[in-house]
């Protein structure tokens, strides 16, 4: 294992029924009800096509410009998962391109 990298296995998964209940709720209402403790903020950018997006989050934290752990998350993701990446807010490097999105 490379020092500094940790991959945690998922301990539990959100049920499909709960995802469906949240699918129709406005994101702002969900954030407000959680006292904005887990909101990602206005710089969160979606990479999916138009439409709604709801599902269990598979989270990635990496250093700016390094997409190694994003590749690992793509390998670990299950159908319906939403990959959420925190790369330190750097906007000068892209972590994901069209090939990875496909």
Automatic annotation (TrEMBL):
Please report a single Pfam family linked to this protein.
Answer: RraA-like
> Could you tell me which InterPro entries the record lists for this protein?
RraA/RraA-like, RraA/RraA-like_sf
Protein name (Swiss-Prot/TrEMBL): RraA family protein
Q: Which organism is it from?
A: Devosia salina
């Amino acid at each position: 294992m490379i020092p500094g990298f940790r991959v945690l296995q998922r301990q539990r998964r959100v049920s499909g029924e709960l995802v469906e209940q949240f699918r129709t709720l406005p994101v702002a209402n969900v954030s407000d009800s959680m006292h904005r403790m887990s909101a990602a903020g206005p710089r969160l950018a979606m990479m999916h096509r138009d439409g709604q997006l709801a599902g269990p989050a598979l989270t990635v934290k990496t250093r700016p410009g390094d997409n190694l752990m994003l590749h690992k998350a793509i390998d670990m993701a299950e159908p319906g998962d939403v990959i959420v990446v925190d790369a330190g807010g750097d906007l000068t490097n892209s972590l994901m391109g069209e090939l990875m999105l496909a």
